[in-house]
Amino acid sequence: MTLQAIVGRVTTAVAIAEGYMQQKGIPWTQRNPGDLIKGNLGHQTPDGKYEYDLHSDGWLDLEGMWHRILSGTHPWYPLTGTWDMIAKEYTGEDAFHNWAVNVCTVLGVSTSQTLAEFLAANLT
């Protein structure tokens, strides 16, 4: 699988974990499939959330972020990190493991797998 295809799988899993695919709730109404707190194409709302004018812009920011992560160029997410470690940084919440389980269930992997191991198993 190409890196871009892997990014597509991961961003879909993230959007599912964030509740975006239910087409309701904050990620959907703010057109923010990854429930990002900052991006390049959107804007901050008065309540501190981040929203996009178009769903496609939210997807572009999410895909760009995960492309940097899976390329090993994102400063906060090392390829040596497990999905649980990534989840803790990504969500910033005590319930990060639930997010990791949700993402990993969609991807069919363990939360203890590193991103490097995930890439090695999927990148062709």
Q: How many domains make up the 3D coordinates?
A: 1
Number of distinct helices = 6
| H and E string | HHEEHHHH
The helicity comes to 40-55%
Spans where pLDDT lies below 50 across 5 or more residues: none
What value does the average pLDDT take? 95
Rg result: 14 Å
Sheet-strand content, in percent, reads: under 5%
Major sheet details: 2 strands, antiparallel
What is the CA-CA span between the terminal residues?
Answer: 5 Å
Q: What is the β-strand count? A: 2
Folded structure, characterized:
It is built from six helices and two strands. The chain has one domain. It has a two-stranded antiparallel ribbon with strand order 1-2. The model has no long low-confidence stretch (mean pLDDT 95). 31% of the residues are buried. It is globular, with a radius of gyration of 14 Å. It is mainly alpha-helical. A hairpin with a 5-residue loop joins strand 1 and strand 2 (50-51). Helix 1 (3-17) packs across helix 3 (55-71) and helix 1 crosses helix 5.
Structure summary:
The protein has helices at 3-17, 25-29, 55-71, 83-91, 96-107, 115-122; strands at 43-44, 50-51.
Write the layout of secondary structure elements.
Elements: H1 3-17, H2 25-29, E1 43-44, E2 50-51, H3 55-71, H4 83-91, H5 96-107, H6 115-122
Antiparallel strand pairs: 1-2
